[in-house]
Amino acid sequence: MLDGGQAVMLPAEQLLQPATASSPLWVRLAAGLEDAIATGSLSPGARLEGEVSMSERLSLSRPTVRRAIQELVEKGLLVRRRGVGTQVVHGSVARQIDLTSLYDDLRRAGRVPSTRVLDVTLAQATPQIAEQLGLTSPVRVLKIRRVRFADAAPIAVLENYLPEAFADITAETLSNQGLYHELRARGVTLRVARQRIGARRATVDEGHLLDIGRGAPVLTMDRRAYDADGAAVEYGHHCYRPDLYGFEMTLVDR
Amino acid sequence: MLDGGQAVMLPAEQLLQPATASSPLWVRLAAGLEDAIATGSLSPGARLEGEVSMSERLSLSRPTVRRAIQELVEKGLLVRRRGVGTQVVHGSVARQIDLTSLYDDLRRAGRVPSTRVLDVTLAQATPQIAEQLGLTSPVRVLKIRRVRFADAAPIAVLENYLPEAFADITAETLSNQGLYHELRARGVTLRVARQRIGARRATVDEGHLLDIGRGAPVLTMDRRAYDADGAAVEYGHHCYRPDLYGFEMTLVDR
DNA sequence: CCCCGGATTATGTTAGGACATTTGAGGCGA
DNA sequence: TCGCCTCAAATGTCCTAACATAATCCGGGG
């Protein structure tokens, strides 16, 4: 076998990130492993040290080591096979779709995001919007319309609806940081989101905002995000310039 | 509190699916819980019985119960909060994107899928295709072109590339079942896939096959699927009619 | 009546052990 | 030399046990 004839054993200091951080042990181990993969200490195809051996060497319990490895398996970085071992997957790594905003996505990709807020208005909700937010019909909602730029090029038109409780969100706040960041700052923790990705022709308005021809194709994403209580917090309707943005994800068979 | 003032306690027989099935305990419990949610025995917002209580009542260990619940949390059906408990999420359930083929997707949605195989040819790989499959340049690959129908309406044009080892796949086989089914039948187990979803204008050819106007928007998906060994098995380039198909997924914050 | 602080309850983390199952490789025999 | 069989190694499943931590509830004191 070319790949991983011998199991790779990395020093404990490299695997376990600094003890100063008071995060769970398995998180620190997972971070250490992910780092080792990212920096090339563990190259694609390499066979990992066995769970039992690793737990003894690091003075951790096997469940803890297992939990860390499981994390990376679900991220698509490692593959485990019973009777064989754990290997680093081939191919270049792609980040998984997270419950994050486009703003964070772009920053991580090393691009410079900026936002132009078109309008922030409190208006009567249409029956459709009210239903998406799980509210009874005659209710007012905050409507936000923004254009997102990456390195000065317009890449998306964002339309978001929130319950009236968030009516004090200002256009200024949204210019500086993403909507999700602002929600988190208010103590709202988003837990689950359902989204649908599709495509259609751009409306005249969208075509103008995105600087593409009228009727040009756009990539769309509708998302409903829920609170920890299960209450709908946000309904978003986004559309992207397909030549500048796409959704990448890693699927893992379980 | 309106929702879940009292924890719901379902009978053991309902939660644990038949013992005849020799699947792992946590799988059977997870299936039982998922069933209870699907049938409405556990309605949205309902509070689940605590882990400890449930494990005692079912004569299972807490880690086993935890594993089952964890599964449904990752599927987006349940939400857990420390100090509070576990609740069924609100909103209608949407299936998560899996490592499955479009063929299986449609069958599960209750639609009748069918396939028209355009051509199956063994040809010299372009440098791009070879690179996607992780092969050195001068190599032949199997190229498959199909049109997928759902209830007699064309919804996708599928273009797949496979290593020469699969050259004996015939057009006839592909008419009866999906490509992934055929691969599994040959002992190939797909473990990881990376995909990118985007949009663009349909080519003249695609517009004709999908019965849409030329230049109409199509939803595209490029996927590379890897074997358990980490070897690239398939590279696919699909395009869908956006008015008939979209990608739905559930995101869970961890 | 309001506010604050403990008791309660629930999930989160970690440990340590035992056995089952799958896989690959090496050795033995025909 | 080829094929079968056994064995070792690795992950998968399952158990018991304890402590940590967050959130809520409730009662007492101001």
Search tags:
homodimer, 254 residues, alpha+beta, Chorismate lyase, two-stranded antiparallel ribbon, 29% helix, DNA-binding
Distance between the termini of chain A: 26 Å
Q: What is the helix/strand order of chain A? A: HHHHEEHEHEEHHEHEEE
Largest interface: A-B, 51 and 51 residues
Q: State the helical fraction of chain A.
A: 25-40%
- Helices of chain A, by number, come to 9
Strand order of the largest sheet of chain A: 3-4-5-8-7-6
Unreliable spans of chain A: none
Number of domains of chain A: 2
What fraction of residues of chain A sit in β-strands?
25-35%
What is the CATH T-level topology of the largest domain in chain A? Chorismate lyase
| Largest sheet properties of chain A | 6 strands, antiparallel
Outline of chain A: elongated
The oligomeric state of the chains shown is homodimer
Q: What average pLDDT do the residues of chain A reach?
A: 85
Assign the CATH class of the largest domain in chain A.
Alpha Beta
Number of strands of chain A: 9
User: What would you say the CATH architecture of the largest domain in chain A is?
Assistant: 3-Layer(aba) Sandwich
Structure description:
- Two copies of one chain form a homodimer.
- Chain A has two domains: 77 residues, Orthogonal Bundle (Arc Repressor Mutant, subunit A), CATH 1.10.10.10; 156 residues, 3-Layer(aba) Sandwich (Chorismate lyase).
- The first copy, chain A, contains nine helices and nine strands.
- Chain A has a six-stranded antiparallel sheet.
- In chain A, α2 packs across α4 and α3 packs across α4.
- In chain A, 33% of the residues are buried.
- The interface between A and B is large, with 51 and 51 residues.
- β6 of chain A pairs antiparallel with β9 of chain B, so a sheet runs across the interface.
- The first copy, chain A, binds a DNA duplex (30 and 30 nucleotides) through α4.
